[in-house]
């Protein structure tokens, strides 16, 4: 009795599962996929080991392209029912797709054991052999399938593909034409035929086939677009335009098709494109996509004023606060910035952010404004908000990296650039920065990899190629360097970049005589190309051809009197040999020829300083400043010279002028703060110096850190100053003034031993530097301690 109940229950469960499966298949036939899925799952609830229910769900996974789930279910079906040939063959097809042809053939053989003439197994075997490039064997197997089932569409398609691969396109096309007659609505067959026709450049036949497909499928957008691309490829603009017009007519209420037509004709018929857009907008007054397309077209036609009018219209239609109004206001703010109306731009951006506090475009524009104004901290904050919502915003990451660089956070900048490369390995700014950092750390292999990836997308980019060439030179990859040089020379036999790289390659190989001749060729074509002149000088010095170099420079200067780099190189040669008068003569000659050569004044002044001719050096700087009164470099150099000669008031006045022009010049800030602290000390000046040097507290430059800390010492903020000065001395232990400042701090703290240690170190270093003023200060302090 128990056995009978068990059998009865089992039969009932199987019957119920079968009923659910049948119901699911009926629902599928009606296109009710989700409901069918529920029925198949119901079948599994009743009968978990129902191979057919699992198989039906696998087919649904196939339809959804959910390959991972499909594979798992098919594997389960085969385990439950080793004779379920449909599942076994489907699994084999997945193996072919993944490239595992050995397992695919194993699946086919499982079916052959019981049904040696199984068409599906023959097709699977043929597909696997095709993947293995065994085209003849593949053709044999597919022919077997067709001999059994001549009208099999899959086998016919596969045979056409194999024949085409064997170089028999006409036979392939004949089979496809015959097969399409059996199943004219099968798009995959038509696409395959179109592919082979395109390979044979049979464009007329392709056009005819596309037109037939359009007639049968008038709403299939991709067919129209493919035909347009075919016409465009042949330069048949009118035919392509007519096809797009037919597409618009077939879908009159679809914005996307209208925009396709407008974008296609705007290059050749921009006014017609604009007229079309106006017509479309008249028909649909509140279509913002069409209106923004009109804005883009007006900008393309350089009609900025009309574009602005349209943007303002969008803000009115969208009630000033909607998504489209926000987009329009951000664009209007951009135009305000172009017109130097920053206040108006900020007002628009802030109004957008009031409505939408995390609007990406508004925050991005605001960050750009802040970066232009050197307000790096708020810019960083706004850029980080964007990345919180859109971590893959490439433009934001690059801007953030630049903001970090400007705020001396190089490590954070590098991290942002690396994130950029993860998103887009071809980003030029990121690739150049990261590769140069890798080159600095001698990680040449990774630098080359970064540059190679970027060049995959931009193979002609000169900056990337130039950095790659530098990397290959450092790796001593002579062949790789030569390949890049030859690439430039193939494009243009007179390419300065190619000739120069060839010269650098010879120099790197220590073939200096050949390098010198190569550099001369570059200079014959482009005398103003300074790196070639510098390379020639280096190679000449390396092989002790100083006199020959000087002779060449005389000749070069005679032919190119305004190429001031030649004067600078010649003067440096004389300077190195302590032939100061000759160096000064060369520089004076250069300045007489090119009075605006501002670096020449600095170079000439340095020669006079070496000769202790301070008055002459001062006059040289003054001459330069008479020509360029706002030149900060000359002003700072002259101020520094005044300092060295105890003319502190003149130095102070010059530093103040520099900072009035540009308040961010760190050497001027540092030197003026030092003067205010040491030479013009007062409570007011110490407060000014403290404010000026606040930005130095996180600096990596010991001199700036020292100035910041020394101001604190003078303000008796010893506990704050101590760790900073200790860090300064640890970074640069052999600088007299650093040890002196730390010694003074310890003396103020009555840490006598530490004070004496650093003051004695400062005394020894001051003797080496022959700084009599510092020596006397230290001696006075040491005597007071003793």
UniProtKB/TrEMBL annotation:
Q: Which domain of life is it from?
A: Bacteria
Entry keyword annotation includes Repeat = yes
In the UniProt record, the signal sequence range is none
Q: Which UniProt keywords apply?
A: Repeat, TPR repeat
State the TPR repeat positions. 17-50, 85-118, 394-427, 598-631
Asked if the keyword Hydrolase belongs to this entry, the reply reads no
From the Swiss-Prot or TrEMBL record, give the protein name. TPR repeat protein
The record lists the organism as Cycloclasticus zancles 78-ME
